[in-house]
Specification:
Layout (H helix, E strand, L loop, with lengths): L1 H25 L56 H4 L4 H4 L52
Pfam family, one: NapB
Family: Belongs to the NapB family.
GO biological process, one term: anaerobic respiration
Length: 146
């Protein structure tokens, strides 16, 4: 007896929510953040510049930022172009920083001669550094090093 009543109440609530959303849209109460409909192309101006000098890290264990463009880099299941300079076998010849040894440990902590699969996609932790405006207010203060 309770299940049919509960199912009816749920259906009524869902229906009212949909009707309310439709009324809000038709009343003009909703607007987009970009100021145009989804179908309209919106030109975006260049709002940041790639920085080539190295930024300081703001907290302990922060992944280093990338001081160069990676727009044309291939990073997928078969290839990782970052390793052509940053792998331990190439870094000395190329003058590039070597990957941390943590990148060569498997899930069980065993050392390997190749980058671990859990560290293969560099840009899931490392991002190109840029002097870009804040999207939201930021009150973060860097570590004091103590």
């Amino acid at each position: 007896m309770n299940k049919p009543i509960l199912a009816g109440a749920f259906a009524l609530t869902a229906s009212l929510a949909l009707v309310g959303a439709a009324l809000a849209q038709s009343a003009g109460g909703l607007s987009t953040l970009r100021g145009a409909s989804v179908e309209d192309p919106v030109a975006v101006e260049q709002v940041f510049q790639q920085e080539t000098q190295r930024f300081n890290r703001e907290y302990r264990q922060q992944p280093p930022l990338i001081p160069h463009s990676i727009d044309q880099y291939q990073i997928d299941l078969r290839a990782n172009q970052c390793l052509s300079c940053h792998d331990w076998t190439n870094a000395g010849d190329r003058g590039a920083p070597t990957l941390s040894m943590t990148h060569y440990l498997d899930r069980d902590g065993n050392e390997m001669d190749h980058v671990a699969g859990t560290r293969w996609f560099c840009n899931q932790c490392h991002v190109p550094q840029a002097n870009a405006p804040e999207l939201v207010e930021n009150t973060f203060e860097p570590s004091t090093g103590r």
